[in-house]
Amino acid sequence: MKNIPLLCILLLTSVLYSQNAKKSTNAQRVKNAPKIDGKLDDAAWLNVEPAKDFMMFEPSSGIPEPENRKTTVKIVYDDKAIYIGAYLFDDAPSEIPMQFGNRDEIGQVDYLQVNFNPNNDGQNDTEFIVMSTGVQADSKSSNSGNSRRKDMSWSTVWYSDVSVVDDGWIVEMKIPYAALRFSNDEVQTWGLNILRNFKKQNESYSWNFIDRTKGNYPQYAGEIKGIENIKPPTRIEFYPYAAGAVNFYDGETSSISSIGMDLKYGLDETFTLDATLIPDFGQTAFDNQELNLGPFEQRFEERRTFFTEGTELFNKGSLFYSRRIGNRPTKYSEAEDDLEENEEVIENPSTVKMLNAVKVSGRTKKGLGIGFFNAITERTYARITDTITNESRKFMTESLTNYNVMVLDQQFNRNSSVSLINTNTFREGDFRDANVTGLTFDLADKNNLYKVRGNFKLSNVNEFDELTTGMSTFLNFDKNSGNVQYGVGAWMVDEKYDISDLGFLRENNTQRYWADLSYEIFEPTNAFNSYRFSINPGIKYQHNPHEFSSADIEFESFFVTIDRFAFGADFTTLLGDEYDFREARSSDPSVYFRQNGGFQAGVMVSSDYRKKFAYDIRPNFAKRYDDHFEEYEVSISPRYRFTDKFNMIYELNLGKTLNEKGRVTELDDETIIFGNRDKKTIENVLTSNLSFNRKSTMALAFRHYWSTVRYDEQFYSLNNSGLLDPHPYDENSDINYNVWNLDLSYVWEFAPGSQLIGLYRNSIFDYNDQSYLDFGENLDELFSQEIGHNISLKLIYYIDYNNAKTWFKKKA
Question: Where is the signal peptide, in residue numbers (predicted)?
Fold first, then answer.
């Protein structure tokens, strides 16, 4: 009896060790590669020791997989590729979720995920996912701050197949070496983890145990050994394309066609050059434009594949906003200012054409990541005509411009990194140039319990032969492990800091200090899979002159029940009055707009997506104390899965703002005019996917955004105390704003990496002062505008140099 405590301690130690020890498995070289057909009947799989004994890591931790849902994975390789053969046992194979979707979209399906890390550095994984439908997904994953950055836009060409059998389902995968980056060593050990997700049971298992209470997934990789005498292949991939489009607008028809090519070239075993020659972005999805009454620029998501794929290095330091490339010309608005008597602008392109772009990126075995990006855009002109003589002239709105980004990122200790980033914008002639340099660090202790993050950035802008230098700095300390987590941080950016040429910054001349405290569970209770509470106080100042701006405190909670019903709430209150140094848009930094404090409260509920019908509801309310300002918002989004191959999601967003005080304009005598306004917004969004099979999909994306603004008859001027005085300004400033976009697309992957994409698109934009219209009247007014129609077809063909060599050999 007296040995029982000792035995318990030894048993507990054994369990903890088994959960934290790094597993290893051996890959076996084969002469004859298995056929990728979703069957494990090839001789290559015989006598291969499987990776097995998976452990649950979500929602519970450390529970062994059940006998009726075990997973065994075999790995073999040859001179060309590494192969995965997995038997995924399931005692109810007919109930395995089978919702089809597009590539890289993981819906309501079971899936197997294999993470390779050839450098075995615990920070950078290349992930290959096969869903129960057979649809593929792939991504790159890296550690970023307190989270894992997962780049689903990255894609490569690999092969897989699945089959459902009486006691589960089978996955076979072939990963060509061209899809991975590894050294030229004779004997190699790679990082490896294998994840299996059960959607019906809402459970996730991993081969090497993942401790969700600290660190990130890549740090919990096991190892794959036995890989010998493989050589990184010559990596040259061509993506030539041909595209054509027909446009109908205002009774006129125009057509365009283009050919071009994307290229991937392996400079060595770890570094890759990506280039796009004569790029075509005609089928890029619409931006979700909104009426912007605030002082800050609206940020749009990058949708061009070349700028989203494999950009994890270039995102370091948040200095690269790729939408700047090909954006509105620098001197777009100056064309109107250059007019002489009897002249008018008859053509003024709102975007700049990109001529070409290249990026080189990779990471050495010692953890040094190097990235270089360069793009060139062409000269852009507005055309001005004399209305009397009909003579035309050109006004340059953008010169020939070169953009480049350079990144050095040193990773170490499997959880830390230091980065140096430089961005540069050089414009030919009498245009502004810019250069920004940033040093960032992300340091964690050996046990992943604490982390310190920070950066220091300098901007240099040369305009009108005058150099302006600005600075930004950030420091944050976190305890990012365990149930109780906390942190403190500070951020400062001075009034001269400007990264707008190739970066994005919402505001400068600001200081902010904050703290956060949270409690989160990592083991389910009887009622909840997870829940989290947090409290986040903060205080904000203007940097120069140093003036108090606001103080706030935010409370948040989030719960997920055992039945996958999620709900949460948040509440934020301003502690005292708010001194807004931005709303007036004044060049004088001492000008501010003073308003009463207030609060914002919101809730959210989200039902179980595993069911055919599901929904999300998010109401929100805001009010200022002792003021008539109120704001109501609600988002309702039902979704229905008609079949496993056809689903539809509808989203309705309603907003109403009453008695908001906001800037209207600035008069010639520098009087800043404010108005009291009511704003109403209705947004309808419909998306739908119809999958004919895993390679062929039709999709619909529709959005109508309508917003109106109505001002009271009484306007105001902003005084030196930040308050409003009545003013006789009486211009009509009402707004009626509409955006209508519809995309209907068909995508067919007719060969690995090769696609045929057909697109029908129509769009309407309307901006006027008819804010009094009701919804029906507004639609009538909207459809009285000219509608733009576009029909386009694009063919992309994938050519791998290694396969092309065999074509020519066969012909010879």
Answer: 1-23
